[in-house]
Amino acid sequence: MHFSCISIVTTSAPPAWGGNAKLGASEPPSCCSFLMLRQEKQQLSLLLSLHCLPSVHSALFLFPRFPSPFHISLSLSPPPWPVSDKFIEVDNRDMKEKNPWHRPVTIIITVIGVIAIVALVTVAVLQNKPLSQKYKYGIVLDAGSSHTALYIYQWPAEKDNDTGRVEQMHSCKVKGPGISSYASNPSMAGESLKECMREAQRHVPASHHSETSLYLGATAGMRLLDLENKSASNKVFLAVADALQKFPFTFRGARLLSGQEEGAFGWVTVNYLDDRLKQEFRLYGNDYQLYTHSFLCYGKDQALRLTLAHQTRTGLGTIADPCFHPGYNETKKYSDLYDSPCVSDRKPQQAPSNFTHTGIGNFQQCQEVVKKIFNFSRCEYSQCSFNGVFQPTVQGKYGGFSAYYFVMNFLNLTDTSIPLESVKEKLARHCATPWRELKNKHPDIKLKYLAEYCFSGTYIITLLTEGYNFTSETYSTIEFIKKIKGSDTGWTLGYMLTLTNLIPAEAPDTPPLPHAGYVSIVTVIALVLFVLFIFSLRPLWPRCSKQPQIV
Ligand SMILES: Nc1nc2c(ncn2[C@@H]2O[C@H](COP(=O)(O)OP(=O)(O)O)[C@@H](O)[C@H]2O)c(=O)[nH]1
């Protein structure tokens, strides 16, 4: 290493030398490593490495014990003392103890490096951030037996082949009964849908209204009306179609879904939402064998009619129903009870116009009455569920939704890890609860639902075990579900996915890394590069970061 010496004669009284002199100020030498000071009387000597010298003209020296910084000019002269290796060694050792990070060059490099990393990560994040999504929309009206519900779905518009995930964006429960109840006044069926339709208009952006498909599918209630009075059911469909066409969406028809369609679309919905269709991606575009059977008249409401019909079959004026709570007492009309194709042919001759429906709240007896509505003995196949209908052995997970969920949720029985025996004990306690006590405990629940939960729970457990052959061992494979990933379980999503060809023939490609993972990796690599960059500047560290020493 080459050194040259600079001698400086100070004009003022010699400062209180000692400690470290800091070099800085307006025109600092670009490089000043191995700056060392020697004091002889009033003469200050600086030892600088040669390559520093061209840029050294003047400098500001800060002496810790001198009252204020002072400016001195530098002049070059040959070194007045020999530069020994020992001297340099000692000096180097001293310097290693100093923290180099506060030296200006290091700070500048660090700042530039940090800015570079921030810039790199920002660019990566911005470049790869999903662009502001544009969506497509679809609307499906589920015209059920007891009520109609409207569902709005949305999915990303820019995905090729519509492979984007379809999600439920909004739902609206139509006020009033199901559309089949408007058989005698069809126009009111259309009228009843308008409030939810206006809500849909507000939720779907106006610019998308015309391209948004609107479907209405009707299930059990309309199936029964169709059996009972085809012309009345046609009029209801015409009325709802007429009302729906007046909205700015693309109306794609109001129709009756068969029981098989309802089952299959429900299956598509839950498997789509659970990502099972994507896992077994050959399902996309392939035929898949699916067992589905819909038991008309065995929905919860019609099953209750069947049970009551069984109990009133002799035309009694009063029935003591084990499926209703002790203290329950309501006068009901025979004509209302038998006003359904599920029971109309069983109406007892010479029955009074009313009967008094009282409760005794006994789960075991209720189960016995409920069993009476099924025919378990007739089966022409290897195995049956009931009423002579073939059913393969149940495999995999079984999802119970709609009424299954409403009822089991109220009874706090959606957890199917609870042993079946405990479920029955809990149900028995619920059924035995006096009606008055139950009403006081649940003042907010619709009385019709509240009165029927004992029957409904007993019916569900009986249907699952005696009808669909679930056992204590397989009961835990059932899941009572309302929503999956924010979307309601039911046939509507599967219906829309199928009709709008939203399940493509091939499974969509997924990027190898999620966005967050990608950004993390870029950040880590950038940091590693930065550290390597800092280390690559190491040769500059000693010269640029060492403190001048007074020797
Ligand atoms: N507890 C309860 N039951 C309901 C509710 N909404 C509908 N239900 C019942 O659930 C069953 C299915 O109703 P719905 O969806 O209208 O009929 P479906 O589509 O023809 O099966 C019927 O027994 C209704 O009485 C609710 O909010 N709470």
UniProtKB/TrEMBL annotation:
InterPro entries: GDA1_CD39_NTPase (IPR000407). It holds the Pfam family GDA1_CD39. It catalyses: ITP + H2O = IDP + phosphate + H(+); GTP + 2 H2O = GMP + 2 phosphate + 2 H(+); IDP + H2O = IMP + phosphate + H(+); CTP + 2 H2O = CMP + 2 phosphate + 2 H(+). The active site is at E262. It is a multi-pass membrane protein. Its main location: membrane. The chain crosses the membrane at residues 42-63, 105-126, 516-537. Its EC number is 3.6.1.5. Keywords: ATP-binding, Calcium, Disulfide bond, Glycoprotein, Hydrolase, Magnesium, Membrane, Nucleotide-binding, Transmembrane, Transmembrane helix. Its cofactor is Ca(2+); Mg(2+). One of its GO terms (biological process) is nucleoside diphosphate catabolic process. One of its GO terms (molecular function) is ATP binding. It is an enzyme of class 3 (hydrolase). It is found in: Membrane, Caveola; Membrane. Gene3D superfamilies: 3.30.420.40, Exopolyphosphatase. Domain 2. GO terms for cellular component: caveola. The keyword Oxidoreductase does not apply. Catalyzes the hydrolysis of both di- and triphosphate nucleotides (NDPs and NTPs) and hydrolyze NTPs to nucleotide monophosphates (NMPs) in two distinct successive phosphate-releasing steps, with NDPs as intermediates and participates in the regulation of extracellular levels of nucleotides. By hydrolyzing proinflammatory ATP and platelet-activating ADP to AMP, it blocks platelet aggregation and supports blood flow. Belongs to the GDA1/CD39 NTPase family. Homodimer; disulfide-linked. This is Ectonucleoside triphosphate diphosphohydrolase 1. It comes from Cynoglossus semilaevis.
